[in-house]
Amino acid sequence: xxxxxxxxxxxxxxxxxxxxxxxxxxxxxxxxxxxxxxxxxxxxxxxxxxxxxxxxxxxxxxxxxxxxxxxxxxxxxxxxxxxxxxxxxxxxxxxxxxxxxxxxxxxxxxxxxxxxxxxxxxxxxxxxxxxxxxxxxxxxxxxxxxxxxxxxxxxxxxxxxxxxxxxxxxxxxxxxxxxxxxxxxxxxxxxxxxxxxxxxxxxxxxxxxxxxxxxxxxxxxxxxxxxxxxxxxxxxxxxxxxxxxxxxxxxxxxxxxxxxxxxxxxx
Length: 267
Fold this sequence. Notes:
This protein is an all-alpha fold. It has helices spanning about 5-20, 25-40, 45-55, 60-75, 80-90, 95-100, 110-125, 130-135, 140-145, 150-165, 170-180, 190-195, 205-225, 245. The two termini are about 35 Å apart.
Protein backbone atom coordinates (compact mmCIF):
# COMPACT_ATOMS: atom_id res chain seq x y z
CA UNK A 1 0.00 0.00 0.00
CA UNK A 2 1.43 3.39 -1.04
CA UNK A 3 1.16 6.49 1.14
CA UNK A 4 1.24 10.19 0.28
CA UNK A 5 4.83 11.45 0.41
CA UNK A 6 4.51 13.57 3.57
CA UNK A 7 2.68 10.82 5.44
CA UNK A 8 5.18 8.21 4.27
CA UNK A 9 8.04 10.36 5.60
CA UNK A 10 6.34 10.73 8.99
CA UNK A 11 5.78 7.00 9.23
CA UNK A 12 9.35 6.27 8.18
CA UNK A 13 10.75 8.59 10.86
CA UNK A 14 8.79 6.80 13.55
CA UNK A 15 9.85 3.37 12.30
CA UNK A 16 13.49 4.49 12.34
CA UNK A 17 13.09 5.48 15.98
CA UNK A 18 11.52 2.12 16.78
CA UNK A 19 14.52 0.31 15.28
CA UNK A 20 16.98 2.62 17.02
CA UNK A 21 15.44 2.35 20.50
CA UNK A 22 14.00 -1.16 20.71
CA UNK A 23 17.06 -2.63 22.45
CA UNK A 24 18.08 0.25 24.72
CA UNK A 25 14.68 1.77 25.50
CA UNK A 26 11.87 -0.60 24.46
CA UNK A 27 9.12 1.44 26.11
CA UNK A 28 10.07 4.49 24.08
CA UNK A 29 10.30 2.35 20.95
CA UNK A 30 6.80 1.09 21.72
CA UNK A 31 5.54 4.69 21.96
CA UNK A 32 6.94 5.49 18.51
CA UNK A 33 5.41 2.31 17.10
CA UNK A 34 1.99 3.41 18.31
CA UNK A 35 2.36 6.71 16.46
CA UNK A 36 3.31 4.87 13.26
CA UNK A 37 0.36 2.54 13.77
CA UNK A 38 -2.07 5.46 14.07
CA UNK A 39 -0.67 6.93 10.87
CA UNK A 40 -0.55 3.80 8.72
CA UNK A 41 -2.24 0.77 10.24
CA UNK A 42 -2.76 -0.83 6.83
CA UNK A 43 0.96 -1.07 6.07
CA UNK A 44 2.40 -4.50 6.86
CA UNK A 45 5.82 -3.16 7.85
CA UNK A 46 4.16 -0.89 10.41
CA UNK A 47 2.18 -3.77 11.91
CA UNK A 48 5.33 -5.89 12.10
CA UNK A 49 7.34 -3.11 13.78
CA UNK A 50 4.48 -2.54 16.23
CA UNK A 51 4.48 -6.25 16.96
CA UNK A 52 8.18 -6.36 17.76
CA UNK A 53 7.92 -3.24 19.94
CA UNK A 54 5.06 -4.82 21.89
CA UNK A 55 6.99 -8.09 22.11
CA UNK A 56 10.05 -6.27 23.49
CA UNK A 57 7.89 -4.79 26.27
CA UNK A 58 6.25 -8.17 27.02
CA UNK A 59 2.84 -7.11 25.71
CA UNK A 60 2.44 -10.55 24.18
CA UNK A 61 -1.26 -10.46 23.33
CA UNK A 62 -0.81 -7.17 21.50
CA UNK A 63 2.33 -8.41 19.76
CA UNK A 64 0.56 -11.56 18.58
CA UNK A 65 -2.32 -9.53 17.15
CA UNK A 66 0.08 -7.29 15.22
CA UNK A 67 2.09 -10.23 13.88
CA UNK A 68 -1.09 -11.93 12.74
CA UNK A 69 -2.20 -8.76 10.98
CA UNK A 70 1.16 -8.46 9.21
CA UNK A 71 0.98 -12.10 8.14
CA UNK A 72 -2.51 -11.64 6.72
CA UNK A 73 -1.26 -8.71 4.67
CA UNK A 74 1.87 -10.39 3.31
CA UNK A 75 1.11 -14.10 3.38
CA UNK A 76 4.63 -14.66 4.73
CA UNK A 77 5.44 -17.32 7.34
CA UNK A 78 8.56 -15.46 8.53
CA UNK A 79 6.94 -14.38 11.80
CA UNK A 80 5.71 -17.87 12.70
CA UNK A 81 8.39 -18.58 15.36
CA UNK A 82 7.91 -15.28 17.19
CA UNK A 83 4.15 -15.75 17.04
CA UNK A 84 4.62 -19.12 18.73
CA UNK A 85 6.86 -17.49 21.32
CA UNK A 86 4.10 -15.00 22.07
CA UNK A 87 1.91 -17.98 22.91
CA UNK A 88 4.56 -19.01 25.42
CA UNK A 89 4.60 -15.51 26.84
CA UNK A 90 0.83 -15.75 27.31
CA UNK A 91 1.27 -18.96 29.31
CA UNK A 92 0.12 -21.25 26.50
CA UNK A 93 3.13 -23.47 25.72
CA UNK A 94 0.87 -26.17 24.35
CA UNK A 95 -0.22 -23.80 21.58
CA UNK A 96 3.41 -23.04 20.80
CA UNK A 97 4.03 -26.79 20.52
CA UNK A 98 1.06 -27.16 18.20
CA UNK A 99 2.45 -24.41 15.97
CA UNK A 100 5.78 -26.29 15.85
CA UNK A 101 3.94 -29.11 14.10
CA UNK A 102 2.18 -26.98 11.48
CA UNK A 103 3.11 -27.03 7.74
CA UNK A 104 4.27 -23.40 7.99
CA UNK A 105 7.45 -24.59 9.73
CA UNK A 106 8.58 -26.41 6.60
CA UNK A 107 8.31 -23.15 4.65
CA UNK A 108 10.73 -21.33 6.92
CA UNK A 109 14.34 -20.79 5.92
CA UNK A 110 17.13 -22.34 7.98
CA UNK A 111 17.26 -19.44 10.43
CA UNK A 112 13.50 -19.58 10.92
CA UNK A 113 13.57 -23.32 11.54
CA UNK A 114 16.27 -22.89 14.18
CA UNK A 115 14.16 -20.18 15.83
CA UNK A 116 11.18 -22.50 15.80
CA UNK A 117 13.28 -25.24 17.38
CA UNK A 118 14.33 -22.84 20.15
CA UNK A 119 10.72 -21.87 20.80
CA UNK A 120 9.60 -25.51 20.83
CA UNK A 121 12.34 -26.42 23.31
CA UNK A 122 11.34 -23.47 25.47
CA UNK A 123 7.73 -24.64 25.42
CA UNK A 124 8.83 -28.10 26.50
CA UNK A 125 10.68 -26.56 29.43
CA UNK A 126 7.63 -24.47 30.30
CA UNK A 127 5.71 -27.71 30.63
CA UNK A 128 8.41 -29.31 32.78
CA UNK A 129 9.56 -31.65 30.01
CA UNK A 130 13.28 -30.98 30.29
CA UNK A 131 14.44 -34.22 28.65
CA UNK A 132 12.16 -33.59 25.68
CA UNK A 133 13.53 -30.04 25.44
CA UNK A 134 17.07 -31.44 25.22
CA UNK A 135 16.04 -33.86 22.47
CA UNK A 136 14.29 -31.07 20.56
CA UNK A 137 17.51 -29.04 20.47
CA UNK A 138 19.61 -31.95 19.25
CA UNK A 139 19.93 -31.45 15.50
CA UNK A 140 22.42 -31.22 12.63
CA UNK A 141 22.55 -27.45 13.24
CA UNK A 142 23.65 -28.02 16.83
CA UNK A 143 26.24 -30.64 15.85
CA UNK A 144 27.67 -28.59 12.97
CA UNK A 145 31.04 -26.88 13.42
CA UNK A 146 29.91 -24.08 11.10
CA UNK A 147 29.05 -20.83 12.87
CA UNK A 148 25.99 -18.81 11.90
CA UNK A 149 24.31 -15.87 13.61
CA UNK A 150 21.99 -18.24 15.47
CA UNK A 151 24.71 -20.71 16.53
CA UNK A 152 25.59 -19.10 19.91
CA UNK A 153 21.95 -19.01 21.02
CA UNK A 154 21.29 -22.60 19.94
CA UNK A 155 24.35 -23.89 21.81
CA UNK A 156 23.52 -21.71 24.82
CA UNK A 157 19.94 -23.02 24.99
CA UNK A 158 21.24 -26.58 24.82
CA UNK A 159 23.78 -25.94 27.60
CA UNK A 160 21.14 -24.31 29.78
CA UNK A 161 18.76 -27.23 29.31
CA UNK A 162 21.53 -29.70 30.16
CA UNK A 163 22.29 -27.76 33.32
CA UNK A 164 18.64 -27.82 34.37
CA UNK A 165 18.69 -31.57 33.85
CA UNK A 166 21.66 -31.86 36.22
CA UNK A 167 24.15 -32.75 33.47
CA UNK A 168 26.73 -30.20 34.62
CA UNK A 169 29.81 -31.52 32.79
CA UNK A 170 27.98 -31.53 29.46
CA UNK A 171 26.52 -28.10 30.21
CA UNK A 172 30.02 -26.73 30.85
CA UNK A 173 31.18 -28.12 27.51
CA UNK A 174 28.32 -26.52 25.60
CA UNK A 175 28.56 -23.17 27.36
CA UNK A 176 32.18 -23.22 26.21
CA UNK A 177 31.13 -23.95 22.65
CA UNK A 178 28.55 -21.16 22.80
CA UNK A 179 31.19 -18.74 24.07
CA UNK A 180 33.56 -19.69 21.24
CA UNK A 181 30.88 -18.93 18.65
CA UNK A 182 29.60 -15.78 20.38
CA UNK A 183 31.91 -13.09 19.00
CA UNK A 184 29.33 -10.32 19.46
CA UNK A 185 28.37 -11.06 23.05
CA UNK A 186 24.81 -12.07 22.21
CA UNK A 187 24.71 -14.39 25.23
CA UNK A 188 26.25 -14.45 28.71
CA UNK A 189 27.87 -17.83 28.04
CA UNK A 190 31.23 -16.67 29.39
CA UNK A 191 29.62 -15.63 32.70
CA UNK A 192 27.72 -18.89 32.99
CA UNK A 193 30.89 -20.87 32.31
CA UNK A 194 32.82 -18.88 34.90
CA UNK A 195 30.01 -19.45 37.41
CA UNK A 196 30.20 -23.20 36.86
CA UNK A 197 33.96 -23.07 37.36
CA UNK A 198 33.57 -21.13 40.61
CA UNK A 199 35.16 -17.95 39.30
CA UNK A 200 34.12 -14.71 41.00
CA UNK A 201 34.61 -11.32 39.37
CA UNK A 202 35.80 -8.39 41.49
CA UNK A 203 35.12 -4.76 40.62
CA UNK A 204 38.75 -3.64 40.73
CA UNK A 205 37.97 -0.23 39.25
CA UNK A 206 35.45 0.47 41.99
CA UNK A 207 37.98 -0.45 44.68
CA UNK A 208 40.63 1.75 43.11
CA UNK A 209 38.27 4.69 42.98
CA UNK A 210 37.48 4.22 46.67
CA UNK A 211 41.14 4.27 47.64
CA UNK A 212 41.89 7.22 45.40
CA UNK A 213 38.98 9.23 46.80
CA UNK A 214 39.81 8.78 50.50
CA UNK A 215 43.10 10.72 50.70
CA UNK A 216 41.56 13.65 48.82
CA UNK A 217 38.75 13.91 51.37
CA UNK A 218 41.18 13.72 54.26
CA UNK A 219 43.38 16.36 52.73
CA UNK A 220 40.48 18.71 52.17
CA UNK A 221 39.26 18.39 55.72
CA UNK A 222 42.76 19.04 56.98
CA UNK A 223 43.10 22.32 55.09
CA UNK A 224 39.82 24.19 55.05
CA UNK A 225 37.22 21.84 56.51
CA UNK A 226 35.33 21.44 53.15
CA UNK A 227 34.77 18.19 51.25
CA UNK A 228 36.13 17.93 47.72
CA UNK A 229 33.22 16.48 45.72
CA UNK A 230 32.95 17.18 42.34
CA UNK A 231 25.41 -4.45 32.17
CA UNK A 232 22.57 -7.29 29.78
CA UNK A 233 20.03 -8.74 28.41
CA UNK A 234 18.05 -11.50 26.05
CA UNK A 235 15.68 -11.33 26.11
CA UNK A 236 12.72 -12.23 24.19
CA UNK A 237 13.98 -15.89 20.00
CA UNK A 238 13.43 -22.65 17.97
CA UNK A 239 16.35 -33.36 17.17
CA UNK A 240 16.39 -36.30 17.41
CA UNK A 241 14.29 -38.56 15.26
CA UNK A 242 12.57 -39.80 18.42
CA UNK A 243 10.95 -36.38 18.96
CA UNK A 244 10.37 -35.57 15.31
CA UNK A 245 6.68 -36.34 15.04
CA UNK A 246 5.80 -34.69 18.32
CA UNK A 247 7.50 -31.37 17.61
CA UNK A 248 6.88 -31.30 13.88
CA UNK A 249 10.54 -30.45 13.37
CA UNK A 250 13.13 -32.35 11.41
CA UNK A 251 16.86 -32.12 11.08
CA UNK A 252 16.90 -31.40 7.36
CA UNK A 253 18.31 -28.24 5.90
CA UNK A 254 15.49 -26.10 5.61
CA UNK A 255 20.24 -18.90 7.22
CA UNK A 256 19.56 -15.76 9.48
CA UNK A 257 18.08 -13.90 10.68
CA UNK A 258 13.63 -14.24 13.79
CA UNK A 259 14.66 -13.37 17.70
CA UNK A 260 15.51 -13.03 19.83
CA UNK A 261 11.89 -13.22 18.55
CA UNK A 262 15.32 -14.00 20.34
CA UNK A 263 16.52 -13.70 17.90
CA UNK A 264 13.07 -14.00 18.82
CA UNK A 265 12.87 -16.96 21.14
CA UNK A 266 12.72 -16.26 24.82
CA UNK A 267 14.86 -18.34 27.17
